[in-house]
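Quick log. Single chain, no ligands specified.
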Amino acid sequence: MTIKPWPGEWVDRAACVGRWDLFFPPVGGSPREAKLICRGCPVKDDCKEYAQDERFGVWAGKFREYSTRTRPSRANPVPIDPLVCPGVCGGTVFIPRNRDQKYHDQVCGDKSRYAARKAARHAQWIAAAESVAVAA
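-> predicted structure:
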């Protein structure tokens, strides 16, 4: 592990001077307050340049813990197989934008969810009417 040299005189002008504990939150801790301090910092650009290789903490308003997660790059996305839409559209084949997308578009999803709720209410009404008819 190599230790970086002291970044320079810009650190003395930073808005975070004396509040280092906020910029390295514990596991599960929130970096929100540190990010708010960074928002108005006069040396944000110097901080960003200095912290390019840092893996932890808040630097120039960015929480480094998130940036180290492994995720597919936009240049080489993980391929997603085409799906058949289960909605009211009648089975449109589409390629989802993400793994959570069920319907080919927002309108189809809304109409399908509305139709499912309407069918459930209708089934409840029929069951209630049958129970009243049996009791009478």
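The chain is about 35% helix and 5% strand.
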